[in-house]
């Protein structure tokens, strides 16, 4: 099940339980995703960056609803730690920074922080 499908399923559950404020938030989230993604491209590889961007914006808002923050965080895949990124890059035996970053993008899309990975790739 894709992240998008999970969101829609959760919305249906919230509707059944008559949680109208929550349904409004999830409907807004679905609309944001659909506005930024073509209908035929609602896979995790396209939805995850949208959710990360929304989460970044929400984290900058003082007193942001904690439920909304946790709802989005729970949907996102677990991010690789600095040690995990370093181990993957070291074991890849790639020599240049561009090769390392391409490798990460091709094999670990949306599972790492780009800024952190770039710093690690440069330092090796």
Write up what this structure looks like:
The protein is mostly helical. It is built from seven helices and no strands.
In short:
With about 120 residues, the chain is mainly α.
**Percent of residues in helical segments?**
over 70%
Oligomer: single chain
Q: Overall 3D geometry?
A: elongated
Q: What count of domains describes the coordinates?
A: 2
Largest sheet, in brief, is: none
Sequence stretches where pLDDT stays below 50 over 5 or more residues? none
**What proportion strand?**
under 5%
**How many angstroms does the end-to-end distance come to?**
37 Å
Q: How confident overall, as mean pLDDT? A: 94
- H/E element sequence: HHHHHHH
Structural class: mainly alpha
Keywords:
0% strand; mainly alpha; 124 residues; single chain; 2 domains; 72% helix
How are the SSEs ordered, and which strands pair?
Elements: H1 3-16, H2 20-36, H3 44-59, H4 66-75, H5 82-92, H6 97-107, H7 114-123
Helix pairs in contact: 1-2, 3-4, 5-7, 6-7
